[in-house]
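Worked example 3 (structure in, sequence out).
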């Protein structure tokens, strides 16, 4: 059965069709082509024809013409549309025509650079002339090869981190390469946003400054590629500080693309509990596999990916065992996982297996969103909403082979955001992808790179730094002179500090350290099976954790955070572990505090502390909690800066009296203990959803209709409104009836707006709301803190923008057309819960400089 036949079956099969909330079909499109350019180097023409390429897609021809006209193209076309050839063709043409010309290719990851080198090598090896010397240059490049690469490579493929620490500070070793540099290619440009993008933009300023030094009148063109975002031209011009030309009319052929939003069926109507997103994703992927449809299943976390792999292999083994075949498929080799933490050789093997068709299914994190060549797959199953519209289309774009039909299925989880999209699919299909923002002129980031630039070349008085004018640069240089980092001699400023500044600046604001995973193959033999980043080690490989790697379970025997080593042994267990983690935000120092309408605004130094304190053992498939354990690990501290607003007690009292405050803890009344025990006894001390008996801890007792919806505790605590649930099933039931408070809604809307005011990425900021916070002597607080250690000035900027931020938040919520909260304003409630739009508007009115009667906004 073909994919088209299977889709027809799904349209009529009740167990599938009734759970489909949207089925969007993008029609097939024929290729729009153009002849090979008449000026194209004959050797390239011959190489293309050896690959069966007689013409170009229209966007490839447009990119060629843009480069030939001396412009900087930004190629924004679909996944697998031939963007690589669109930039390789003009670059290789010029390098063949000019024996001295060089090109620098920048990729966001090492894996992508190595993958693209393979694509470049295919053309290179078919050239009738001598092949052009190409090389990757990253942290894995042997020291012995580096001088040869610097001297002889015509095309160098690297990443911004390597350019920052290993090329620019040692530019004299690259003098010949930089003197003849003709092209800089910036692939996957949409990744360069927020703090990371702001750093990369300054690295590019430093690169262009050094190019000017070696070339005098520089003759360098940039070629950029991007996934679909709202503002490709704006982002590109901020990165390279030069005009760009957007190439976005995709001429690649494509088949029909089906995009389905699937909401798992309700398995407990009384509690509103739906079937697990993992189980349903595996079921749909299993049907695709049984019809030989090559499939990628995306999970949001590394653990999710390993669970998907285990479930897929188990399901596939059960399916194939029933087949009357002497050689059933080997699910271990045909179904794989792909995520960070795997060794490079494992990832290359999986990529090759996908290209050849030997691997029929892969469970993957967003590591496979980027343009690594894995061939054209037939279907993509997204186990939960990826978090952004752009990310969703990027993952869905992994499915599609030329003119064949393709399928993408978004399987909704129980989270309020997923359920909102499942019930309001037009919100997803009618909104454009998000904008990518950055701010290279952030004072702390800019100062860090001015230090690096001064180390690389002396500054002249009156010199600009990119688009930073000479007057502002002079102010920074005077600051560095006064701090003893530079020395002024006449009109020149020379670096004089002993430290090497680039080593002190992390582009990604995260530690590059990783923990090596050693598995026991024999009693005394240890083999490296992978690695995890140091920040994730406490919750992924804490002692007694079950670590999943390529479907194999390992029990962690020891975690040595100082030596960066974890020792594991293979384990045959019927469960996996979930860490128990606590997060606290504590005050270090107030830097500024001021009265504001409804309360106070503050910014200062804070400590965000996360600590893994234990773990739960969860049984495969049933998700029954089998037990728990404790661990003793040091806390992980993020010393950073934050901005927070606190509500005055009078404001809370006023809202409470108006019935617009729901953040007080529930007081279940004097009969709660008696009713709770009666419910547990009536239910036989077993979870009424999964049947798990109480083991070690008492089960929870859940209100079927939320407690807050009753006028009295006696009505709420009636036995018919109570049900006994294990912790896991209780969390699922709570998600369905989540009641969103005004404080949570306020945090959500401020979290939506803050990145726009700061021109940063949402992931650069953390968000914390607390009804009784130590930051404000027990009063309610919303905190927005910086994810970069030490902060880079965002908190102070938000403090200064407080009035504008509140005014825009109120305007945004008032203008939103939703009835009771949505992802665009205060966030959605649970599927059967209550949103917080009324409470949030009342809060914003209380905190607004423009005073009207509380509640008036709600009636307008």
């Amino acid at each position: 059965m073909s994919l088209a036949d299977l889709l027809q079956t799904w349209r009529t099969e009740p167990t599938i069709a009734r759970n489909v909330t949207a089925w969007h079909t993008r029609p097939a499109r024929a290729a729009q082509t153009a002849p090979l350019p008449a000026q194209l180097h004959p050797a390239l023409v011959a190489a293309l024809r050896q690959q069966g390429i007689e013409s170009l897609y229209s966007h490839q021809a447009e990119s060629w013409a843009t480069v030939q006209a001396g412009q900087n193209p930004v190629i924004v076309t679909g996944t697998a549309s031939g963007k690589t050839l669109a930039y390789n063709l003009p670059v290789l043409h010029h390098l063949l025509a000019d024996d001295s010309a060089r090109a620098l290719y920048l990729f966001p990851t090492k894996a992508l650079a190595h993958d693209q080198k393979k694509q470049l090598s295919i053309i290179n090896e078919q050239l009738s002339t001598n092949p052009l010397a190409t090389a990757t240059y990253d942290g894995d490049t042997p020291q012995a090869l580096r001088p040869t690469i610097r001297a002889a490579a015509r095309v160098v493929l690297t990443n911004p981190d390597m350019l920052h620490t290993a090329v620019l500070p040692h530019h004299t070793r690259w003098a010949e390469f930089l003197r003849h540099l003709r092209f800089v290619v910036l692939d996957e440009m949409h990744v360069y946003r927020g703090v990371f993008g702001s750093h990369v933009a300054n690295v590019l300023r430093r690169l262009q400054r050094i190019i000017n030094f070696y070339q005098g009148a520089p003759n360098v063109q940039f070629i950029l590629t991007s996934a679909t975002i709202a503002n490709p031209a704006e982002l590109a011009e901020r990165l390279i500080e030069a005009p760009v030309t957007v190439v976005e009319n995709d001429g690649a052929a494509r088949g029909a693309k089906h995009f389905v939003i699937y909401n798992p069926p309700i398995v407990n109507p009384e509690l509103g509990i739906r079937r697990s997103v993992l189980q349903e994703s595996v079921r749909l992927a299993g049907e695709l596999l049984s019809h030989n449809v090559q499939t990628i299943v995306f999970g949001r976390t590394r653990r999710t990916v390993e669970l998907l792999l285990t479930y897929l292999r188990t399901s596939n083994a059960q399916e194939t065992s029933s087949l009357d075949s002497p050689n059933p498929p080997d699910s271990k080799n045909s179904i794989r996982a792909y995520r960070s933490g795997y060794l490079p050789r494992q990832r290359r093997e999986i990529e090759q297996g996908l290209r050849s068709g030997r691997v029929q299914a892969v469970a993957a994190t967003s590591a496979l969103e980027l343009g690594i060549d894995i061939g054209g797959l037939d279907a993509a199953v997204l186990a939960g909403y990826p978090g952004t519209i752009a990310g969703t289309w990027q993952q869905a774009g992994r499915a599609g082979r030329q003119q064949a039909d393709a399928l993408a299925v978004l399987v909704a989880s129980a989270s309020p955001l997923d359920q909102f999209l499942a019930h309001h699919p037009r919100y997803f299909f009618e909104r454009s992808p998000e904008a990518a923002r950055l701010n290279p002129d952030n004072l702390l980031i800019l100062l860090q790179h001015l230090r690096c630039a001064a180390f690389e070349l002396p500054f002249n008085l009156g010199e600009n730094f990119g688009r930073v004018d000479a007057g502002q640069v002079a102010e920074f240089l005077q600051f560095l002179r006064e701090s003893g980092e530079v020395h002024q001699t006449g009109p020149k400023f020379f670096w004089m500090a002993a430290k090497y500044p680039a080593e002190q600046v992390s582009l990604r604001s995260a530690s590059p350290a990783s923990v090596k995973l050693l598995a026991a193959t024999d009693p005394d033999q240890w083999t490296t099976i992978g690695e995890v980043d140091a920040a994730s080690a406490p919750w992924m490989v804490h002692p007694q954790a079950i670590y999943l790697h390529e479907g194999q379970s390992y029990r962690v025997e020891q975690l040595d955070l100082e030596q960066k080593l974890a020792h594991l042994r293979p384990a045959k267990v019927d469960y996996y572990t979930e860490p128990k983690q606590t997060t606290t935000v504590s005050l270090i120092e107030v830097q500024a505090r001021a009265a504001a309408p409804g309360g106070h605004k503050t910014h200062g130094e804070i400590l965000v502390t996360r600590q893994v304190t234990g773990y739960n053992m969860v049984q495969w498939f049933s998700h029954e909690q089998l037990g728990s354990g404790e661990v003793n690990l040091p806390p992980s501290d993020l010393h950073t800066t934050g901005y927070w607003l606190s509500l005055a007690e009078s404001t809370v009292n006023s809202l409470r009296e108006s019935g617009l405050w729901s953040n007080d803890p529930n007081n279940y009344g004097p009969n709660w203990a008696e009713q709770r025990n009666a419910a547990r006894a009536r239910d036989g001390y077993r979870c009424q959803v999964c049947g798990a008996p109480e083991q070690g801890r008492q089960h929870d007792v859940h209100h079927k209709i939320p407690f807050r919806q009753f006028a009295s505790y006696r009505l709420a605590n009636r036995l018919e409104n109570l049900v006994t649930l294990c912790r896991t099933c209780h969390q699922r039931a709570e998600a369905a009836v989540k009641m969103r408070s005004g404080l949570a809604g306020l945090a959500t809307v401020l979290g939506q707006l803050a990145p726009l005011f700061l021109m940063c990425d949402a992931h650069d900021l953390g968000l914390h709301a607390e009804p009784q916070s130590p930051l404000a002597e027990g009063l309610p607080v919303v905190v927005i803190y910086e994810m970069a250690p030490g902060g880079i000035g965002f908190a102070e900027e938000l403090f200064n923008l407080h009035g504008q931020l509140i005014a825009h938040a109120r305007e945004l919520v008032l203008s939103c057309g939703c009835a009771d909260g949505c992802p665009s304003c205060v966030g959605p409630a649970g599927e059967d819960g209550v949103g917080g739009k009324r409470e949030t508007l009342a809060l914003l009115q209380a905190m607004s400089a423009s005073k009207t009667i509380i509640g008036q906004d709600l009636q307008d």
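Notes: Residues 194-215 form the longest helix (22 residues). Residues 852-860 have pLDDT under 50 and may be disordered.
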